[in-house]
Amino acid sequence: MFGQFFLFIVVLLIYTSYRPPEAPPLDVLEAVGLFAASLIGFAAAAKWSFRRLTLHLQRLDLFRADDLLQRHQTRWEITAILLFALDVWALHLPAFTQRWAPFRVFPTLEAVLFLAGFLLHLIWVWTWVYSIQRKIFGNPLDLREFLKSQMFFGIPVYLPWLALSFVMDILSALPFEQPAKWLQSPPGQTTMFFVFLTGAGIFGPFLIQKAWRCTPLENGWMRNRIERLCRKAGFSYAEILYWPIYGGKMITAGVMGLVKRFRYLLVTQALLEQLLPEEIDAVIAHEIGHIKKKHLLFYLLFFAGYLLISYALFDVLLYALLYIRAFLDLPNIVGTDPLGRLSTIWTVCSILLFLVYFRYGFGFFMRNFERQADAYVFTLFESARPLISTLRKIALFSYQPIDNPNWHHFSIAERIAFLARCEADHSWIRRHDRKIRFGLVCYALVLFAFGSLAYSFNFGDTGKRLNQHMIEHILVKEIERNPDDPKLQAFLGDVLQSRKAYGPAKEAYEKAIALAPENAVALNNLAWMLATCEDRRYFDPKTAVTLAERAVRIQDTPQFLDTLAEAYYAAGRTEEAVAAGKRALQFATGDRRYFEAQLRKFQQAFSSMKPPDGTGGKGQ
Questions:
Q1: What confidence tier does 297 reach under pLDDT thresholds 50, 70, 90?
Q2: Cβ within 8 Å of residue 563, ≥6 positions away
Q3: 245 near 156, Cβ under 8 Å?
Q4: pLDDT tens, 415-460?
Q5: Mean pLDDT of 53-67
Q6: Which residue range or ranges hold the Peptidase M48 domain (predicted)?
Q7: Which DSSP helix (H) or strand (E) runs through 462?
Q8: Which 3 state secondary structure label does DSSP give 299?
Q9: DSSP letters of 132-163?
Q10: Domain edges within the chain
Q11: Which architecture, in CATH terms, is 518-608?
């Protein structure tokens, strides 16, 4: 399950951070053809690789064979992620799908399409994993049930994300400009995330158990036994459910839900059939321990902590990477301008931060929370021997090596050894509780430090000055090494314009245009500055029109047409401004409200024939 968690989060980070170029390097037929070829090549290579693996596994014992198969599966799932990244970042497939009207109104539909493409790669991998499991381990499931179980593992990840995305789409589609602007701002997105995270933590389990098609455990002596144990522990729940994961053939149990009304205790058919009654009691005690120790609430807080830390570290990591000269030498497949490359760096930083945070930070607490839940059995029973025997059975039936740890669980051997120490000396339980409390205090201090850093960077004057200084410093150093690079000069002009240093910005743009007269971006951005500048020394509508017309002749994108319309508007040529504004709106993709507002402004000016004041508008 946690492997699926990593897969889908990384894929979502890759997709959501994509920034389309002004003009994709491939046409739609070339991009789709390469996508189809890569999918076919991936399927053929996976088939050949897993067939070779089958011959090798037949010579190993079942425990080593299972371990090797899991490693091979992970490698191919990582390969699927890399291919997905190429589909998005190299083939620029979203740049083509974003032209479709339904995807512009509801971008989540486009995301579902790309997730389905990624899932298609995974299905090939899972199909071959199943064929090996069936042949070597005698997997009792049929292929359909196996694939369904694999896909259902991802429901706790993509179901909340889909719900949040659709809510955002609906709010953005409402005919009110201010709510949409607020939602697109960092405070709005942060607030929305925290509200949704709380809602998902409370109501999510109800939707998840429905999606998993869980059914209530029937009345009988086993249900009565579990209910008595829950009453003894003071554990409240909404329902005890069968967990149909892997057709119920896996020995496992689970619990989910922050509040009683939507809290569910999950058990599999195999657990009830393969374990003795006292062993089932021990497993249920373990799950109750997660609730009693408030682990689910801490997991929710850890997700919120990840948002805070990533928010604080974004600028720091980005500036560190910008000092690496290779950043500016990235090929055009990641973007045709420095902003495209910035977006690539942001994606890499986000994925690395996500992996480090959850693998080591979140993983530390998960492992120790599991150990704390193991120790909770001593709260309800005198001995942990039934839980120890259960752990041995799990290793035996799942062919899992007893000394094989993972990032979110100690190995079964380590768990048994800890329970044995607690059996002999209960002080080990108190020591472990102190270890967790100390870890949580340290984590809270880290969050406080990162929260202060985030506030300073994003809202304080110190952060603003540092941002400007760092970006300018990096660009100036790069320009010293590459004085004839027009893109660096244009990017410096963008930075200087953003902090209203209009004189140096104009100089940087003019250098970029002198080095590359066909640099449409530099022409466009200088034209925008001259048409909208509130400093009358640099307000020059006539020159802005000339520059904007040159940019549009080179590349007639919606953004460049909007700049041309703004330049006409500033020069008092309102009829031409309306015509250019209409063309900009016609070619616009995604959120078109800005272009609609611009066109209304030009039309009102044309109707009144009043001279504009030459200020206002939105930068490019």
A1: very high
A2: 524, 527, 528, 531, 548, 551, 620
A3: no
A4: 999 999 999 999 999 999 999 999 999 999 999 998 887 777 666 6
A5: 85
A6: 216-419
A7: helix 461-481
A8: helix
A9: HIIIII---S-HHHHHHHHHHHTHHHHHHHHH
A10: 295-459, 518-608
A11: Alpha Horseshoe (1.25)
